[in-house]
Amino acid sequence: MKEEPQPLLQMNDRMVGTSNRDSAVHLLEEIRQLLSHITLTEQKREQLLEAISVIEAEFEHDQPRKIIIDGMLRTMDDVEGIEFYCKRLKKVMRV
After folding, report:
1. DSSP states of 13-40 as a string?
2. What is the pLDDT of residue 44?
3. pLDDT tens string 40-53
4. pLDDT mean across residues, the chain
């Protein structure tokens, strides 16, 4: 059975009870950090970083567009090493 990876950033007491948006931002930061440790082509790494930036930009809106967030998450679905975080992010964002 495959073990789930340990988060790079530990959730602390301050983060408990925060909004879904804050949890999503935390997960995106974890993904961003993981990308520097995963073997990827430079083009794929840039594509993933851009997807993260687009999701973060959506958080600036009062009503983030789920279709945009879902599309960006789909670009990350097939990357070995971040699947766990993408699933958690989808759950938090309810997409």
Report:
1. GGGTT--HHHHHHHHHHHHHHHHTTS--
2. 92
3. 999 999 999 999 99
4. 80
How crowded is residue 93: how many other Cβ atoms within 10 Å of its Cβ?
Answer: 20
CA distances to 33, 65, 72 from 38, in Å? 9, 29, 19
From CA 86, how far away is CA 76, in angstroms rounded?
Answer: 7
Residue 38 has pLDDT above 80, yes or no: yes
Tokens of 14: 């301050």
- Rounded distance between C-alpha atoms, residue 76 and residue 13, angstroms: 29
| Cα–Cα distances in angstroms (integers) from residue 87 to residues 31, 41, 94, in the given order | 12, 23, 10
